[in-house]
C-alpha cells in the first residue's frame, strides 16, 4: 500500500461514527506521519494539533512534534502548503501562521510548556518526551533555531524504511538536506554547535542517498561524521547511529563480516541519548545476520553431504574392457570348464519361416478389411 492509499484509508477512518475516541487518535497519529513522509508539513501540523486538543497520552510529545513540523515548514515549505511570505492564507486553519513572526510566537508557546508537561510511568519518562525536553531547551539556547527537526523525528521513528519506496519523497528530503548543509556552511562561524548541526544534516543526507541506491556517496557522508566525532558537543548519539547506517549499507551489499564489525562498534557506545531506540535496530540487524549465517552453514552442509554420496566415475577404455574379458576367459579355462560354441544356446527363441508367413497373412487381411 502506498502513502496515498494509506492517507485515503485513514481519512475515511476518521469519519466513521465510532464512540471510542482513542480510535480517532490512532488514525490522526498515522495520518500525521503519512503527511510528514510526503513533506506536507502543514497537514501534519493539523493532525498534531488535533492530538494536542483531544489526546492526553503525551502532551509534551504532541507539542514538540507540532513545533518541529512548523519549524520545518518555515525552513522549507512542503508540497501544497502556503508560503510563509504570504500575508494571508486561503484556509482559515492557517490564520495563526499568517506571518513568520506569529508562527515563531506560536512555536515558543508550544516549547516553553514542555518541561511542565513531562510525565513519568513507573519512575521512568517516555523516550519521546526526553527528546522533546532536550530539543526545547536547545531551541531557546540556539536563538530559537533547530536543524531539520521534522526529518530527525522521521529518522528516529525509522520512517526512512517506509519512505525509501517513495522516491519522490526521498528526493524532496535530499534537497532539504542539501539546502540546510549549504546554509550551515555559510554561517559556520555564527553557530557554537556547528558540527552537531552539520553532522545531523550529513547523516540525514546519507540516509537519503542510501534510499536512492547511491551507496558510495552515502558511505562518504557517514565516514565524514565519524571523522568529526571529537568535535561533537551535544549530539553524540549520531556516532552509534552512523555505525548502524554503515552496518546496514554493507549488509545490503552482502558483506556480512564487515557488517558484524560495524554492529560491534555500535554496541560499544554507552550512555548516549536515544540508546533504547537504537537497540531495536541492533536487535533487528543481529537477527538478519544470524539468519544469513544459518543459510550459509546450511548450504555448506548440503554441499558436504552431497559430495559424500557421490560415486566417483572412472572412465573405462575399450582396451581395459577387453583385458577384463580375457582375464575372465583365462580364469574359466584354468578351472577346466571348456565352453564349446555348439553347446551355446541363443538368448531369444528361434522362429521358423512358417511363423513369419502367418504374420504376413494377418497383416494383409487387416489391410484388405473395410472400415
Automatic annotation (TrEMBL):
Residue numbers spanned by region Disordered: 293-371
InterPro entries reported for this sequence: IML2/TPR_39, TPR-like_helical_dom_sf
Pfam family membership, one: Iml2-TPR_39
Compositional bias (Polar residues): 362-371
Domain of life of the native organism: Eukaryota
Biased composition (Acidic residues): 350-360
Full protein name: Tetratricopeptide repeat protein 39B
Species in which this protein is naturally found: Fasciola hepatica (Liver fluke)
Phylogenetic placement of the source organism: Eukaryota, Metazoa, Spiralia, Lophotrochozoa, Platyhelminthes
Amino acid at each position: 500500500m502506498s502513502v496515498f492509499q494509506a492517507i485515503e484509508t485513514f481519512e475515511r477512518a476518521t469519519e466513521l461514527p465510532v464512540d471510542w475516541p482513542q480510535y480517532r487518535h490512532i488514525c490522526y497519529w498515522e495520518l500525521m506521519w503519512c503527511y510528514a513522509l510526503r513533506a506536507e508539513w502543514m497537514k501534519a501540523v493539523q493532525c498534531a494539533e488535533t492530538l494536542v486538543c483531544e489526546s492526553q497520552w503525551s502532551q509534551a510529545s504532541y507539542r514538540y512534534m507540532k513545533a518541529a513540523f512548523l519549524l520545518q515548514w518555515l525552513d522549507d515549505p512542503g508540497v501544497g502548503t502556503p508560503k510563509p511570505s504570504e500575508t494571508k492564507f486561503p484556509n482559515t486553519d492557517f490564520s495563526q501562521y499568517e506571518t513568520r513572526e506569529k508562527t515563531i510566537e506560536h512555536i515558543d508557546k508550544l516549547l516553553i510548556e514542555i518541561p511542565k508537561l513531562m510525565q513519568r510511568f513507573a519512575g521512568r519518562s517516555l523516550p519521546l518526551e526526553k527528546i522533546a525536553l532536550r530539543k526545547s531547551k536547545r531551541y531557546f539556547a540556539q536563538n530559537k533555531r533547530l536543524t531539520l527537526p521534522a526529518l530527525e523525528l522521521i529518522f528516529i521513528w525509522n520512517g526512512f524504511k517506509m519512505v525509501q519506496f517513495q522516491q519522490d519523497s526521498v528526493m524532496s528530503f535530499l534537497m532539504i538536506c542539501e539546502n540546510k548543509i549549504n546554509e550551515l556552511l555559510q554561517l559556520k562561524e555564527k553557530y557554537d554547535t556547528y558540527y552537531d548541526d552539520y553532522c545531523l544534516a550529513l547523516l540525514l543526507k546519507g540516509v537519503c542517498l542510501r534510499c536512492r541506491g547511491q551507496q558510495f556517496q552515502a558511505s562518504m557522508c557517514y565516514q565524514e561524521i565519524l571523522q568529526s566525532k571529537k568535535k561533537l558537543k551535544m549530539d553524540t548519539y549520531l556516532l552509534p547511529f552512523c555505525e548502524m547506517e554503515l552496518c546496514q549499507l554493507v549488509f545490503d551489499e552482502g558483506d556480512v563480516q564487515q557488517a558484524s564489525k560495524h554492529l560491534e562498534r555500535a554496541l560499544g557506545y554507552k550512555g548516549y541519548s536515544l540508546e533504547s531506540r537504537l537497540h531495536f535496530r541492533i536487535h533487528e540487524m543481529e537477527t538478519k545476520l544470524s539468519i544469513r549465517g544459518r543459510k550459509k552453514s546450511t548450504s555448506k552442509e548440503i554441499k558436504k553431504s552431497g559430495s559424500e554420496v557421490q560415486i566417483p566415475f572412472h572412465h573405462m577404455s575399450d582396451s581395459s574392457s577387453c583385458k577384463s574379458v580375457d582375464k575372465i576367459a583365462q580364469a574359466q579355462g584354468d578351472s577346466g570348464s571348456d565352453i564349446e560354441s555348439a553347446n551355446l544356446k541363443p538368448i531369444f527363441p528361434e522362429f521358423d519361416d512358417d511363423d513369419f508367413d502367418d504374420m504376413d497373412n494377418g497383416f494383409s487381411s487387416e489391410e484388405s478389411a473395410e472400415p
